[in-house]
Amino acid sequence: MATIVPYTFEKKEEKALYFTSFTKGMKVLIATEKPFAAKAVQGIVDILEGAGHRVVRLEKYTDKSQLLEAVADVDALIVRSDKITADVMAAAPNLKIVVRAGAGFDNVDCAEAKARGIVVMNTPGQNSNAVAELAVAMMIFMSRNCFTPGTGSEIKGKTLAIHAYGNVGRLVGLKGKALGMTVVAYDPFVADNSVFEADGVERVESVEELYRRADFLSLHIPATAQTKGSIGYDLLCSMPKGATLVNTARKEVIDEQGLKKALSEREDLKYVSDVAPDSGSELSELFGKRYFATPKKMGAETAEANINAGLAAANQIVDYFATGNTRFQVNK
Fold this sequence. Notes:
Blueprint: H1 12-22, E1 27-32, H2 38-50, E2 54-59, H3 64-70, E3 76-79, H4 86-90, E4 97-100, H5 110-115, E5 119-122, H6 128-143, E6 159-163, H7 167-178, E7 182-186, H8 194-199, E8 202-203, H9 207-212, E9 216-219, H10 233-237, E10 244-247, H11 256-265, E11 270-273, H12 280-287, E12 291-293, H13 303-323
Parallel strand pairs: 1-2, 1-3, 3-4, 4-5, 6-7, 6-9, 7-8, 9-10, 10-11, 11-12
């Protein structure tokens, strides 16, 4: 088991002193099946070693056994989409913190980490612009017949609906407005209406209304027990004629059978995704240019996002070990 760090201190100075004495020279593993850019790696190493920590790397590994071996004596872990499951944590008795360089963290078993006293963080906002730009590019790609000959349409004047108005959703909305689109959004977890008002975005009161109004629906909900399989036949069939669903979130939120049924019955509907559904080959065969998925998740695949997320992960580890800062902890 990892050491569970107490968080009750009478004074900030006591907390800082505790973490400074407790966390000298931690061993940090960068475990990336899909590696960071070289510039990002160098920045991560400079930040961590500059704070007195030791850095080791496991890149382009091909078998889980390599990860299990590499975590045996590490205190901290930086990952991308790598799966940090219960058996990985069991193999890492010294592990105190895992930072997922990116926003989504469903690749980490947060409940198991919490039970073991391991802090899990993400790096929200660091990949947001890259994902938002991809979402807009996908809209244009689908509206122009996947860049094949034929008359397409423009996105100017169309209604862009944003499902979840967080970091990425908000940027997609702003970019849509800049391109002359009407933007509406739904997010029950954003309490302050002033966020929508400041952006000139209309807030709608139900997910059903959102889909009914969407010429383009940009999907940004996380994959949770409540959202998995929640986007299906009824919502898709309620969309206007010629509508396109754009998914840069997670494949699990889509009810694939419902999607296939909707695309079969509505020959005007389109679906484009940054993560290929399990039935991707079948959808491609059945629906041609009305369906497209990137060969591999591309949302955060820009040099800028790669560097931003990596450096943020390193800084969060340094701050945690120096002061106990858990601002971005996702498994409280």
